[in-house]
Amino acid sequence: MTTLTEPADAPEVQRTADLLRFATAGSVDDGKSTLIGRLLYDSKSIFADQLESVERVSKDRGNDYADLSLLTDGLRAEREQGITIDVAYRYFATPRRKFIIADTPGHIQYTRNMVTGASTADVALILVDARKGVLEQSRRHAYLATLLGVPHVVVCVNKMDLVDWSEDVYEAIRAEFSDFAARLRVPDLSFIPISALAGDNVVHRSENMPWFDGSPLLSHLERLHVASDRNLVDVRFPVQYVIRPQSHDARDYRGYAGTVASGVMKPGDRVLALPSGLETTIASIETAEGPVDEAFPPMSVTVRLADEIDLSRGDMLCRPANTPTVTQDLDAQVCWMDESVPLTVGRKYAIKHTTRWARAMVKDIAYRIDVNSGHREEGPAEIRLNEIARVQLRVTQPLFVDPYQANRQTGAFILVDEATNKTVAAGMIGSPAHGH
Amino acid sequence: MSVSHVLSQLRSLEAESIHIIREVVAEMQRPCLLFSGGKDSIVMLHLAVKAFAPARVPFPIMHVDTGLNFPSVLDCRDRWVDRLGVQMVVASVQDAIDRGLVREEPNGSRNRIQTPVLLEAAEKQGFDALFGGGRRDEEKARAKERVFSFRDDFGQWDPKNQRPEIWSLYNGRVHQGESIRVFPLSNWTELDIWSYIEAEAIDIPDLYFAAEREVVDRSGMLFAVNEFTPLRDGEQAQVRSVRYRTVGDANLTAAVESAAGTLREIVDEVAAVRLTERGATRGDDKVSEAAMEDRKKEGYF
């Protein structure tokens, strides 16, 4: 039996480096685009033709310097309106890691995009303008990062050059942010004073702020330990697809393909199938290269079982002594994402949870959450675009769920409008993220 | 590495792509993989093989044939089809020109007129999901496109009206006539693709490898001298060591000077290059800043 390892002949970088996903939030004024441009530029991830285009446009606009924020301006519609309308993904790599940036605009109307970007992020990067201090927007970003279960929050206090590199200004912001973040229970919070425009503490250590003894942003991101953030305890394997070759030599083959949501699975492990409740043993775990010794998130594998049991897409394998909650009643926080029709009690939606689709009806809206203050407003009649609420749902068939804060895979769902087929809500099951 | 349960970046990307491909097959009625014979569509097909092993790839592939293919690309395409035993649909641009569905563009590019041909074939075949090899690092408009990208009755993309894509809970629900373009390689970069091709020893057209080829220099772009790009009056051919970073239409795709004759050398070269692959070699993308955005809205790949 072989162990699934990295492709043996991969270049050094690809073989040893892992993947880190981070989400940035902030408005243009915070210097977010400049920061990303700076990260790409100083880590040599920008190509000559991209830079040339930025320099040309900057010159056309009469700028004195290359406006690195232009690197992240995407669509013509945005350039024309001077806004960012959607989540943009960017990539860069260092010898230690490959980074995927989900770049989201920070305006209040784009809570939807921030939720999208944060949903898969290991790290949330929040920008604070040193001159303005902690704003309502900063609090909203921190709240959403926590709600979405992002394990690490890095606050970049930007534009330090405009406050004379003042340690006092930085410390005041740090204290204020820490104070309210404590109430949100951010698992890992750190602060870095930077100047995205000048490049201080982004890739290279700042000589203007000798009082800061932490790492520059890029080194910090390279060293963040994210492997332990994944849930390796609770085995959850949603069956995605059943592989049954239609050929003579493999007629008896039956494999359950899927992505490990959490936990570590090994051949020989006893497993319980849901919803049937039948128990069996893992005969083997396979990939296209052959059998492997174990499977852990986010591996995509094919599981073969010792006994033929009834198991199909939407079902789940777990350990007999560690099962998710099997329920048709969900208590969840939802972020509403549809601009035209609000969420109201009594409406029915399609719901997708892991690999299972069902229908869900809204039984109750308990309260709406003010994302700026964290305050609750009891008993609202409806929930509109970019609002977050705690709701009760009744689902047409049992789902196999865990609290979102314990499991970002089995605690999450989306709601889809059955008439338009649009994705209208992101849902997080279980206890609220904050400490109210 | 598996002791600490950390997946390398290539294995993470592979796992994500396989998840996406399986999700489409599980939920869509009639998926199809757009196959150009270029490196990205080859990697995508390789991943599809992995996703369903030991069963066969459970959907057909479609080649939108501009009639302007490099012969070595067609050879490679046919090797893949033979090896996998997949069904291949060929949608011919030349045939569409002959029928009057589309008209040849003055500059000889068939890039834009591929779109109606693609849409017609997809509609005729009833495909409700088309896998494309697009990557978000390629281009600004792609950086904002979803993995599951909704297309209306006319195959059009509306960047302002995209479905939110949260976690890996993809929504492929469509009405009759609508479809989804799916980009399993969204999060791969050019370097990832090459590193993976090397690591997995994937069969690609030999055009990607450097060799002594007869070329002509046109405003700094090197075009191979062949039936698609014959010498013009007054031009001088020269023999140089070149390779192709992308393989588009033979009459428009330029080569780059290179000594990279092996996959390892290509990976090293790509890691060091300072031009995006489209900026370096694709005449068709230089038309305007928003060229790709416009083509995508019309239903381009």
Automatic annotation (TrEMBL), chain A:
Residues 17-241 form the Tr-type G domain. Keywords: ATP-binding, GTP-binding, Nucleotide-binding, Nucleotidyltransferase, Transferase. Its EC number is 2.7.7.4. This is sulfate adenylyltransferase. GO terms for molecular function: ATP binding; GTP binding; GTPase activity; sulfate adenylyltransferase (ATP) activity. GO terms for biological process: sulfur compound metabolic process. Coiled coil: none annotated. CDD domains: CysN_ATPS (cd04166), CysN_NodQ_II (cd03695), CysN_NoDQ_III (cd04095). The gene is cysN. The keyword Cytoplasm does not apply.
TrEMBL record, chain B:
The keyword Ribosomal protein does not apply. The keyword ATP-binding applies. Pfam families: PAPS_reduct. Keywords: ATP-binding, Nucleotide-binding, Nucleotidyltransferase, Transferase. Its EC number is 2.7.7.4. Gene3D superfamilies: HUPs. GO terms for molecular function: ATP binding; sulfate adenylyltransferase (ATP) activity. InterPro entries: PAPS_reduct_dom, Rossmann-like_a/b/a_fold, SO4_adenylTrfase_ssu, Sulfate_adenylyltrnsfr_sub2. One of its GO terms (biological process) is sulfate assimilation. Residues 31-254 form the Phosphoadenosine phosphosulphate reductase domain. Belongs to the PAPS reductase family. CysD subfamily. This is Sulfate adenylyltransferase subunit 2. The gene is cysD.
